[in-house]
Specification:
The complex is a heterodimer. Chain A is mainly β. Chain A has a domain of about 80 residues: Protein Yojf, Chain: A. Helices cover about 15% and strands about 50% of the residues of chain A. In chain A, the strands form two sheets. A six-stranded antiparallel sheet of chain A has the order 1-7-8-9-2-3, with helices on one face. Chain A is globular and about 45 Å long. Chain A starts with a strand and ends in a 6-residue tail after the last strand. Chain B is an alpha/beta fold. Helix content of chain B is about 40%, strand content about 20%. Chain B is built from nine helices and seven strands; from the N terminus they run βααβαβαβαββααααβ. Classes of the chains: A mainly beta, B alpha/beta. Chains A and B meet through β8 and β9 of A and loops of B.
Chain lengths: ~120, ~220
């Protein structure tokens, strides 16, 4: 992964638009967040291989970045994105790494299902 | 350390073994006791991907698989099983699925000692789900045939069993080093502190702690 280049990521988002694709979306604080700090309210969400088709999508913000995808009947978005990669399987990987370099959010698009 | 017929270690994540059990595993192997390590997931959902990143969410499983194999090699383990479940999903599996995985392993290996997490006291939901499955499987075995269960309890104090694994610390450090994607950033500092005699770290690395799990009929 490398730091996000907005123009490059926008191009990649465009290539996945108006196609039936697979989405991986997660946010996480880590399973130990409330163990290390009892006042910390740990919440996260995870969806793997949602089958979606978006009309258009956009990357915005000064960095960390936000990405939103407009579906025919709804929306997908993620914030805190810092890094990207188009991997050897042609999957678009967007991730937000926090100050310690740990994944805090991931938003990924693929033409084929991600490994279960 | 008590000599065993066969040891079965069951943890959900690559690296769960490294800090708390790798010395004990190495000691049993040095005794000539067969040791099997069944690792339920590949830690696919770890947040550490290296800094700067050396992995993505999608490439991490293959990297961690390799690291787990290297850690097993460092310990001298020759029966490593990767069970193919997905990190952070164990507590959501259909009832009985994990229990029957444990039952099959026990049936095949006939261990005299099982090592896993203490259910309810192991912080991570995967740890607790694993410990629960082990406990349920063992509870169904008649008392006279039931293997001993040594559990790791992260939030429990006063362990029943404390093994000195000083003799195996170098192997243990190698195992920790093998999990580079997870511990890479902290390893050099930890090793330096250990070698300079940091009392807390020496104590923690050279000893491994277990709770002897008691069943209802014990």
């Amino acid at each position: 992964m490398e730091p996000i280049t907005v123009t490059r990521v926008q191009e990649l988002i465009d290539t996945f638009a108006q196609k039936d694709i697979y989405l991986h979306l997660e946010t996480t604080n880590g399973a130990y967040a409330s163990h290390f700090d009892q006042s910390f309210f740990s919440a996260s969400a995870y969806i793997r291989n949602a089958h979606i088709n978006y009309k258009q999508g956009k990357i915005t913000g000064p960095g960390p970045y936000r990405v939103g995808l407009e579906l025919e009947i709804g929306w997908v978005y993620g914030e805190g994105l810092t890094h990207f990669e188009l991997n050897e399987d042609g999957e678009l990987i967007l991730a937000g790494l926090n100050q310690d370099g740990k994944i805090a959010v991931a938003l990924e698009l693929s033409n084929q299902p991600f490994r279960k | 350390m008590k000599e065993e017929r066969q040891v079965l270690v069951i943890f959900p994540h690559p690296d769960d073994e490294a800090f708390g059990v790798s010395g004990t595993m190495a000691a049993h192997i040095a005794n000539g006791t067969p040791v099997t390590y069944a690792c339920l997931t590949l830690g696919e959902m770890a947040r550490n991907v290296g800094n700067p990143p050396i992995a993505t969410r999608e490439s991490l499983p293959d990297i961690r698989k390799k690291e787990l194999q290297e850690a097993a090699d460092a310990i001298g383990l020759n029966d490593l099983r990767m069970m193919g479940f997905r990190d952070k999903t164990l507590e959501f599996l259909a009832p009985g699925v994990l229990k029957s995985v444990v039952e099959d392993l026990i049936e095949e290996l006939n261990p005299s000692l099982v090592i896993s997490f203490y259910p309810g006291y192991s912080v991570h939901p995967d740890h607790d789900a694993t410990g629960e499955a082990v406990t349920e499987a063992l509870a169904d075995i008649p008392k006279e045939k039931r293997p001993t269960f040594y559990a790791l309890g992260i939030t429990l104090e006063n362990p029943d069993i404390v093994y000195s694994v000083k003799e195996f610390t170098e192997q243990k450090l190698d195992a920790l080093r093998a999990h580079y994607s997870q511990f890479g950033a902290n390893n050099p500092e930890r090793e330096e502190k250990y070698r300079s005699g940091d009392r807390d770290l020496v104590e923690r690395l050279e000893n491994e702690r277990f709770f002897h799990f008691k069943f209802a009929d014990d």
